[in-house]
Amino acid sequence: MTAQTIEIADLYLYPVKSCAGYRVDRLTFDHQGPVGDRRYMIVDPEGEFLTQRRLPVMASIQTRLQQGVLTLGMDGMEDLVVDPPSASSRQLTVSVWSDKAKALDCGDLAANWLTEVLGKPARLVFMPPESHRQVDRGCASVGQWVGFADGFPLLVTSEESLATLSQSAGLDIDMLRFRPNVVVRGGEAFAEQQWQALTHDEGQLLLVKPCERCVIPTRDLLTQQRQPDVVAALKQHCLIDRRLIFGQNALVERIKVLAAGDSLAVVVA
């Protein structure tokens, strides 16, 4: 095995699945992944999750989580403040891809606000700590949990890889398009495709599956228009076995806190 040292450049939190995220100084972890990350989700009346893949306007819903209180914002709308649901809140069974999970409904005020923003019936739900959603058994052992993220607690990307894409596309691509939690610097562009783990003082991040990209990173964050130059850059640098790959899905092992500036040792085969 060989190793090199890199550092954490940025950390991001996404309180509501498929809505806007923001930079943070540190991530803390519990049994579901980063605390506060994608513990909320927007669903339709049948409990199926809604995504900006089909509803690009969701990318414009701003989020902020402070002391457990969620605030949603949207241009032209008054901010919505959402207190965490209580144990007596209505319990629902919701769907994330092929998974079912227990969730708590966040009430009619949130539902009405989201329905107006999205132009279709929608409700906000919360995943309580006692709700357990298993990470893909092909990549994780029994008892490794995830919130409402697509499939894994963390996504790791690198500044160098983004810089190469930006240069090829001829524009500055915002890392938030790729919705990572951990952005690292200090390696070569796309070297993360060969990384197996990132070792931290407290434990390690296990890089268990390359992240296949959908339409979301090809859209401008502000206009939500698809940009052909970004598509071309992704095809040039990230096309592997006919799949567009950018970043690595990761599991957290023994780490309680990650902070911007922390050093990580790269483990490759």
Report, as a whole number of angstroms, the end-to-end distance: 6 Å
The largest sheet, given as strand count, sense and whether it forms a barrel, is:
7 strands, mixed, barrel
**Regarding CATH, which class of the largest domain?**
Mainly Beta
Number of strands: 19
What integer is the average pLDDT? 96
Q: Write the H/E string, N to C.
A: EEEEEEEEEEHEEHEEEHEEEE
Instruction: Order the strands across the largest sheet as they lie in space.
Output: 1-13-12-17-15-14-19
Total domain units? 2
Give the helix level as a range of percent.
10-25%
Low-confidence stretches: none
Q: What is the overall shape?
A: globular
Rg (C-alpha, Å): 18 Å
- How large a portion of the residues is in β-strands, by DSSP E? 35-45%
Per DSSP, the total helix count is 3
Task: Quote the CATH topology of the largest domain.
Answer: M1 Pyruvate Kinase, Domain 3
CATH superfamily of the largest domain: PK beta-barrel domain-like
Structural class: mainly beta
CATH architecture of the largest domain: Beta Barrel
